[in-house]
Design goal:
Elements lengths: L1 H9 L15 H11 L7 E3 L6 E2 L3 H12 L3 E4 L1 E5 L5 E5 L22 E3 H13 L1 H4 L5 H11 L4 E4 L4 E5 L9
Length: 177
């Protein structure tokens, strides 16, 4: 919290949207942020977890792939890594060919890989806000984002290019599957 407070004083474009609080878990934290996030002045929105490691080109590579394929949403394979007993790294592949109904059965990868354009995000934000009671019962914010996108005709791509380390630890709510 102290680091965030320092950033908000140091940088004019850094704003703390919510006072520090927990809403009950990763999904509920994201749903509350989604509801309150003012994105009218942004072209893209990305989910991020505080303990993952992004490679320098993560966002621009995602935007480039989205632009080339005319997609509204993006996710990718990741390297899951564990560092609490001994360092171990494992590729988590989600970049299989999409099918008509894959979004009913699984997410397109961890939420920390997801990037959306503003049109998709604003539509999803409206859905979350209008259906919050039901949405908040769903423990997988990454999966419901993907399911909403695909169910509403938004093109989504799942990239083979890995641009991050997805940290696994003993307190992961869900983690790598």
């Amino acid at each position: 919290k102290e680091i965030l407070d320092e950033f908000s004083h140091k940088f004019s474009n850094f704003e703390i949207l919510l006072p520090y609080q927990k809403f009950g878990g990763a999904a509920l934290n994201f749903y509350n942020l989604i509801k309150q996030l003012p994105v009218e002045n942004f072209d893209y929105i990305a989910f991020a977890d505080q303990d993952d490691i992004w490679f320098p080109n993560k966002i621009i590579d995602a935007i480039d792939e989205m632009t080339l394929s005319n997609a509204y949403g993006f996710s990718s394979d990741v390297f899951a890594y564990w560092d609490y007993q001994s360092v171990r790294i494992k590729r988590i592949r989600k970049s299989y060919s999409q099918t008509d109904y894959d979004h009913f059965f699984e997410s397109p990868g961890p939420g920390c890989t997801q990037v959306m354009d503003a049109e998709l995000f604003l539509d999803f934000q409206k859905f979350v806000t209008e259906n919050y009671t039901e949405v908040s019962k769903f423990d997988y914010h990454d999966w419901i984002t993907y399911a909403f996108s695909r169910s509403n005709g938004y093109k989504w791509i799942i990239s083979k290019k890995i641009n991050m380390l997805y940290r696994q630890h003993q307190n992961n709510q869900l983690g790598a599957n």
